[in-house]
Amino acid sequence: MSTIGWRCAACGTTVDIAVSHPWRCPRATAADRHHVLHPVTDLAPLRPLDHDNPFVAFDPVLAWSAHAAVHGMVLDDRVALVEDLDARVRAVDARGAGFHPTPLTRADALSDALGFDAGAGGGVWIKDETGNVAGSHKGRHLATVMLHLLACERLGLAGSVGSGSGTAGRPRLAIASCGNAALAAATLAAAVEWPLRVFVPPSADPWVLAELRRLDTEVVVCPRRPDDLPGDPCLHRFRDAVASGAVPFSVQGPDDALCLDGGRTLGWEILLALGPRLDRWFVQVGGGAFGSCLALAARSAGLHPRLFAVQAEGCAPLPRAWQRWRSGARRWDDVMWPWETEPHSAASGILDDETYDWLGIIEGIEESNGSAVVVPEALVVEAGELTRRTTTIDASPTGTAGLAGLLAMRSEVADDEQVVVVFSGRRWTPAPR
């Protein structure tokens, strides 16, 4: 196995790969949450196994599988566990989706519209996540959390997982989300009949709420309370639940480090396809776990395409943090804090008050000579319209927000460059009958 363990990006504390349930840095407390464990993996050059499921293909470099292997679970049993979870997920996903390599293709019409030179090898490649489990990339983050939990059950290591009220001896899972992450969490939890509580804002989409209830998920609406601390009230209620014994099943690395394990598989798929030819990748950023995973994937593979993290002007704590970082600030409190005004954008899925996984992204930006990009709302809208004119991908404004970042920077991108954008999050509409 090539996964060495975990290291806190904030304080440097290390955690051995044999430790079960490595949700948070051991030095994190309720009063000091400014820590985040990152998986430490040595894999250059990247050589995946020959298998269509990414959690089998990348078994040698994933933390959940390294932990299971240390405790005696052999490869055949790990493969069987992954394949069983995949089959169960396909049975409950609204469109029958399972885990497989998602498409990465050159978008010819989009590339032409933006003036890229096909003859010189330039263009825009789209990593299309709208056909992934629950319609976004979020399931990739949560699958490794679930695989770790299931492996611990089979290995008899589940005793310390939590004590929140659940069924069949399983503690309840908990997540704070306004949409895509909640749908992915509910799909995975329903697949294995694990009780889940989702904390959502009052503005949650009615169709999303209906889907959550179809999947037998407990939904808790979280209005902002007068006595709340700054930040997302859904996250406050989620953290209260975890403190009371629920298991973090979230996509915020500081609360659930295991979500940063599986998210890297998407980065590795991109890097395997394009390798050193990839010049830039643009990623929409809300809480930041996905952007952090792309940076971690690049670092572990020894490749450093320029990373551009994109946020809408209606909620842009990360670009502010990048400017603070460039000025020499290093303390978490001096770099990242919740957005002070009410977040607003058509890209509603990236309106997190705080970029929780900012540190991994900032380090990735610095290592690759990238940047954090603020896009005006007009470009968020234009990106969606351009997508509909030039592709057949039915992505939401959140899903195409990375393209808005490319639009904002197009004059700085050479016509012969190879650029990746990730379309993640399909429009929230009922599945076809």
Explain what this protein looks like in three dimensions:
The chain has 433 residues and is α/β, with parallel strands linked by helices. The chain has helices spanning 54-57, 63-70, 75-92, 108-113, 138-155, 180-191, 206-214, 233-243, 259-262, 264-274, 289-301, 317-326, 332-335, 358-368, 377-390, 401-409; strands at 3-8, 14-16, 37-41, 104-106, 123-128, 173-176, 196-200, 218-221, 247-248, 280-284, 306-312, 371-375, 418-423. α3 crosses α6 (180-191). The protein starts with a strand and ends in a 10-residue tail after the last strand. The mean pLDDT is 93.
Fold topology:
Layout: E1 3-8, E2 14-16, E3 37-41, H1 54-57, H2 63-70, H3 75-92, E4 104-106, H4 108-113, E5 123-128, H5 138-155, E6 173-176, H6 180-191, E7 196-200, H7 206-214, E8 218-221, H8 233-243, E9 247-248, H9 259-262, H10 264-274, E10 280-284, H11 289-301, E11 306-312, H12 317-326, H13 332-335, H14 358-368, E12 371-375, H15 377-390, H16 401-409, E13 418-423
Parallel strand pairs: 5-13, 6-7, 6-9, 7-8, 10-11, 10-13, 11-12
Antiparallel strand pairs: 1-2, 1-3, 4-5
Helix pairs in contact: 2-5, 3-6, 5-6, 10-11, 11-14, 15-16
